[in-house]
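During the second year of the project, the team shifted from modelling isolated chains to modelling whole assemblies. The rationale, set out in the original proposal, was that interfaces cannot be judged from single-chain predictions alone. As a representative example for this report, we include one of the complexes processed in the last quarter. Its constituent sequences, exactly as entered into the pipeline, are reproduced here:
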Amino acid sequence: MKQVLEFEKPVIALREKIAELKTFTKESDLDLTEEIVKLETRLEKLENDIYTNLKPWDRVQMARHAERPTTLDYVEQLFTDFLEFHGDRYYGDDAAIVAGIAKYKGRPVTIVGHQRGKTTKENIRRNFGMPHPEGFRKAARHMQQAAKFGRPIICFIDTKGAFPGRAAEERGQSEAIARNLMEMSGFEVPIICIVIGEGGSGGALALGVGDRLLMLENSTFSVISPEGAASILWKDGGKAKEAAEKLKITAPDLKELGVIDDIIPEIRGGAHRDLASQAELVDQAITEHLSQLEKLDKQVLLEQRWEKYSNIGSFAK
Amino acid sequence: MLKDFFSKKKHASKPSEEAKQDIPEGLMLKCSDCGKIYYREEMRKQLYVCPNCGHHHQLPSDERINNLFDEGSFMEYDTDLNTGNPLGFPSYTQKLEKDQLKTGLKEAVVTGEGTINGFRTAFAVMDSRFRMASMGSVVGEKISRAIEKAREANIPFIIFTASGGARMQEGALSLMQMAKTSAAVQRFRDAGGLMISVMTNPTYGGVSASFASLGDYNFAEPGALIGFAGRRVVEETIREKLPEDFQTAEFLLAHGQLDDVINRHDMKKYLTTILDIHQAGGNVS
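Output from the structure prediction step:
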């Protein structure tokens, strides 16, 4: 059973109706083709209306969709020879982050990404994609190697946030995130970061400092979850929908604020509708940006990266 | 040991909104830890460290600066940066104005340079009386610029942190200040600069997870609460009661997260020693 989102219920209902009429036509003597064509036109228009006018909260639902493609889904589609490596060498292996090396159209790359599960069992194993310090340190280790061997780094961001647990605090969650932010700003290789689902706060940013920060059209990137913001600001977690609007967490809003560099379009109805087609759009974006970045001299690359971050912010006149 | 006797009372409880406002007003001051009452002026002379129990209360940024830097040496940076309301967030501007009125500060951080026993140093002091010293665009920009100035002048950078985290009302713009400030630290590091971070109560979220943790040396004041996620959030997540000293400076020290915990009264002397050692052996001139 596919997960149906609130805002797309009319679309699903209409689709079911069409399917019903088709079956009916096939099984009876009554020809309803004319009716079906009419409904299909209406469906086309309805889908267009709904999916091109998604509200921030609709996108939050989309970004959290259980079947939304994850890091490993894209890795399988876009890269060859992927080898996943484990562990931070200090404490353990955090399954909420995957990291390894692969080839992208023949050239070596390092891949790092948050990994959530699609089933409850897998989600428990991967802690719902919420990393502990060892996850961030594993990521750091692989990115350091990428810098050493001159491989571009591709990061996939897909997390509700760093895990707010006791053990995470004891092992230095803050330091692990801070170190990634700092080191990523200084690696002398191209870094492309792509938000594919939820980009929650510091835990997302810890894989998000680079030459390009791209977002899938229906992903989100936020300083705090809409629920968290609503509960702090208005003492009412139920006002999450309102908070989602106010916080400006969607790709179009963040492009306008200068936080992200580009938006990767999604296929109609969301990335989960067709992984292969969606992966093609991600592929195009990686190719485009990587070819721009690969031309740059190391010093220019770093200087541009610094310029990009030092210019983010907004001040009153 | 005498030290153990004191350490029992070192846990700072996160000050409530009312408790925080206790400090700038009134003639008398009650220690939020042991309950003893003092004249404000007496407490001020003690740098707001309770003479009875050693509890470190919030120290206004101007008093910290006056206490730490040699007389007449202080020069403030970037006084012309003003906070806007980039997201048009409801009641944000009013909240800022209220805190500006209350504290006389324009924003939650004061940056500048001065000398500490003769050692020229750039610095930033965060002030939690202002919007819980949350980090928005201006806070991030001022800190980042101060680090850049330290790099250009080839002088050390010292930061006294205090913050509830990122400033929600500026959304992802505030989140990105973590990246900006951390990138500035990386540049400073590459240039051989000395950075010292002193975490004061409280240092959380986006500040804890960026520059606060990135000093060559990371210290904290006694009892300061420091962490990524707040205690309540952690308790709700793991459904478990946390130890009383969870996230205190002493707890972090025991878990290998800090170089040391330094009493406010000893701070100037301690920092002077570090500056002196690095002048003698390091790249800092």
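The mean pLDDT of chain A is 95. Chain A has two domains: 6-53, 65-311.
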